[in-house]
Amino acid sequence: MTMGMRKTKMKLTSDNLEKIFNYIESQLEDDDGRGEFDEETQILSAVDRTIEMFKEKEDQGLHFADELHKINDMLMCSKEDFLYSYAYLSEDDYEKTRKYIIDVFKKHYKTNNILADVDTYEENEDE
What we know:
The protein is mainly alpha-helical. The chain has five helices and no strands. Helix 1 (14-26) packs across helix 2 (43-60). It starts with 13 loop residues before the first helix and ends in a 16-residue tail after the last helix.
């Protein structure tokens, strides 16, 4: 069975179902009104939006570099704790985002003549 007129496609696997469920659950509105979905959201609408979001992120190649709350969590948590908290993200998502952030810093350092070893990440000693 196909998804009919829906624009995005995603195979029906246990892994994909788990990712979709975990993402939707993580985006349910909390007591402060934060969250992409609320009690009034239609289930199929939430699933469609989630699949669409996964596709957009895949197309961008930047899985969550544009989501500062996740970057903050990434910096505050161990990799294992982060991936446990964001179970819908893969280790590959984590690594691609980490690499993107490092590349942004490298460019910033080079552009602003900041003394840093941007190739090996080793600490520079004061001369």
